[in-house]
Amino acid sequence: MLTDSVGRRITYLRVSVTDRCNLRCVYCLPACGVRWLPREEILRFEEICEVVRVGVSLGITRVRLTGGEPLVREGLVDLVKRLSGLPGLDDLALSTNGVLLSREARALARAGLRRVNISLDTLQPERFRQITRFGTMADVAAGIEAALAAGLHPVKLNVVVMRGVNDDEIVELGRLAFDRPLHVRFIELMPIGEYFSRDKLVPAEEIFTRLEALGPLRPASGVAGCGPARTYTWEGAQGTIGIIGAVTQAFCAQCNRLRLTATGKLRPCLDDTAAVDLVPALRPAVNHERLATLFRKAVAGKPEQHTMAQREYGTPRFCMAGVGG
Length: 325
Ligand code: SAM
Prior knowledge:
Blueprint: E1 12-16, H1 45-57, E2 62-66, H2 76-84, E3 91-96, H3 101-111, E4 115-119, H4 125-132, H5 137-149, E5 155-161, H6 170-179, E6 182-188, H7 204-211, E7 218-219, E8 230-233, E9 240-244, E10 257-260, E11 265-267, E12 276-277, H8 288-300, H9 308-313
Parallel strand pairs: 1-2, 1-10, 2-3, 3-4, 4-5, 5-6, 6-9
Antiparallel strand pairs: 7-8, 8-9, 10-11, 11-12
Helix pairs in contact: 1-8, 2-3, 3-5
């Protein structure tokens, strides 16, 4: 069992399988000059499996594959197959920008992937290109349809809301959850990197109010893996709305997650660069006992809460509880 210094049980591991991405979203990566890590520094699939195996033996029950863009890593279906067979792992999910999903969704589902989160910040092709710098919206739309058809439910769409960029589409994006069995999650822009400025952050409360233009929202339940999101729906809607107030309504008190970086570092908090290096327990040979010790060390070092709101607003202006990311 992994329990941290304030009694939170750690049951969720986010696994970054690559630092590479086929998009350059404005809030995530610079337009050019990105230097990818050398291949040999990236964990091999066998190594990722060993880390997850040890995590599961310590009480991890849910894993999400992420990146970078996980689908740019060759053989991801194979990794899914290996992980989905691990006894004790109840939930295996994927976060993707959706660009390559249409050709992989069925194979991923057959390999044992349960569900997907797909990033989609706009419904306007030109704006999509501006936000992602490289992407074509039609590819993501095809990816969403393929995920639905492959049964990767609940299919969640992640929208990072930015004032003056896409906040005029909150209602239109929300309407997707009305008309289709989609779960649209609105995420506050987090102060990561140089793109962030306070005026671009649209607080969760404001997002909620704007969505009520479509009718009164009521709390929803029963959607798998909704950890940090406050989830709502409308009468007659096929899907749900999630609002993730990562900055203004942070959820550290409920945070149950660790992150494995592509190079084998275990990070206890999204907002904290502190990390425990697992590589010495993986190379030249895997040492399960040492891996377990390093897991416990990472959990012991998990901060009680992130400091994003303090950094941006001086003191916690809103309810501070935490981020899992
Ligand atoms: N490429 C995959 C994807 O698009 O989901 C996985 C990696 S991506 C970094 C994971 C999620 O983090 C995406 O939904 C993305 O929109 C979100 N994200 C990245 N930077 C963010 C920021 N500064 N604030 C809020 N969300 C952010």
